[in-house]
Amino acid sequence: MCLCLWTCDTEDKKVKKIEEVPVSGLVFQDDIIKLKYVEYGLDAKAKTDILIWEKFVELEIVMSQLKTGDLSYFQDESKDIVLLMKDLINSIPDVVNTPSIQARLVSLETKMLKLQGTLILKNIPKEEHLENVKEVLVAYSNLNLQINKKYEKDSQKIEKP
Fold this sequence. Notes:
The chain is mostly helical. The chain has a single domain, classed as Four Helix Bundle (Hemerythrin (Met), subunit A), CATH 1.20.120. The chain is 59% helix and 0% strand. The protein has seven helices and no strands. It is elongated.
């Protein structure tokens, strides 16, 4: 006795094709220069006081490297970012130690960690990397603006009646 079992599938099997999208994760200085955002620098009065704030000077170096397309600081472990920001917050000079400036520092830390997180992932498109770079630069610019506002407010002599 010979028993043959045949299974016929009358429907064509549909094969799902998974396309791999080539990722250009390289972010260059030219790409960063093309980003449109308002960049605030520190006022001359603020710069003289900020120069004694060593961790802020270190932050300025990190931001200048970021503007040149050097993302190496953000591709390391997040410990570096957390440690820098913790030291930065703990060493704020009394001249600029206000809740609004502390809030800008926390915001900047969040954006830096977000950038670091997306740079680790290999499947993130270049546009998203650039958007996260822009968010970090805007947060840094807003920190500078807040420091400038603090100095501007302190320079105004308003007499109370």
